[in-house]
Amino acid sequence: MSLSDAYEDLDATALAALVAKGEVTPSELLDEALARAERVNPQINALTNLVPEKSRALIAEGLPEGPFRGVPFVLKDLGAAAVGFPVSSGSKLLEGSQPTFDSHFYAKLRDAGLVTFGRGTSPEFGCGPATESAVYGGPTRNPWNLERTSGGSSGGSAAAVAARVLPAAHASDGAGSTRIPAASCGLFGFKPTRARISQGPSVGEGWAGLSSAGFVTRSVRDNAALMDVVSGPMPGDPYCAPPMEIGYAQAADRAPGKLRIGFLATTFAGAPIHADAKAAALDAAELLASMGHEVFEAPVPEADVAGMLRATARVISAGTARTLQAIEAARGAPIQPGEVEPLALDAKRLAEEISGADYLAAIETIHAFGRAFARYLSGMDVLLTPTLGEPPAECGRFTHAHGDFEAFRFGPGGVADYSPFTAAFNVSGQPAASVPLHWNAEGLPIGVQLASAFGADALLMSLCADLERARPWADRKPPVR
What we know:
The chain is α+β, with helices and mostly antiparallel strands. The protein contains 17 helices and 15 strands.
């Protein structure tokens, strides 16, 4: 097998094994990744802030003997501060900003031996289910169909992994931003229990606890091993997730046992969804039943879904405003129209009209929903839904040229219609994953979402790995790669 063929077909775990056996060098893998990026990125616009000279210096200095030694990697262009790796947060305002410290998250990845060489594109400040940022000169496109979005906000990472530029990449998830692009690009994406991964040292919690780091991968075992690398608190974290009895990788290696799995083929409010999304959920339910699980149609939850989504939007707008206000304070001048996209400016305007009491009321709504959803899932081991309410959207639908933040999220065809399932688990803090089990007649991936109880990450990872064994997906390749 040639290096190119091996790189295209093997996951990160297998590539690391080749390095460990001396069959390939880290420099050869990096050269292959960069050649693929040069060939594919003009079509998908998924990678930015590439710094191959920094990567080559890391290799020359000697890579740590970690589980992913020598494997190429990219960080999302949002968060994950790392010295020598510029980050723009999807915004012209911050284009090419140079971090002055390493985040706890990146330090653990570096120590695992990964060779980071750049960033995966993100919508401005992570606010959207598609990756369309002016700073990148156009949308990030889906390798399965270039007219469709790769998802967001980890859309660049997902597009690059799907296009075989690299086997795994950093993602983060504040309202579905790992699971949405995983579903859109035919990948596996896992959002852990709240605070399983530290956001230190500069951040205690992202978006009032909604946000979590993670990965998009082609294999479950890569995701599990990466989660083991980065999981755990650092000193000073405001809170942490309950400890796991076994690690993610160990969980992925064993069967979960017979589970009670409820499924929904409507929104949480009982509204109909696109036929492709419904078909994906029903197909996954049938597969799980054939594997011996007790599968049943779950009732619609008794929870204020609409109120939760509105409260979540308030938190996201406040997070955007906080970022922009910090920039204004640092430079001593207000941000002007044209420096950021209209959506961010309107989010800032909306947040500045929310009182402190209103913000706390939004947090109370979020917490109340989390309690209601925990009660709802107590009647089952796992809940199955589609990841999205419809197939990957056409490019342009979620552009940040939209100047009305609330209409962007709640207007006809807005975020709430497109992604009615994912944010619930950011609010509840429960682990949730998107698994690529279904493709529609047009050849587009249609992901299904699985979620378990707070802290039950190992059970969920075990089930996802079992699904991969039952219906492998790694041999599916997009036309653009």
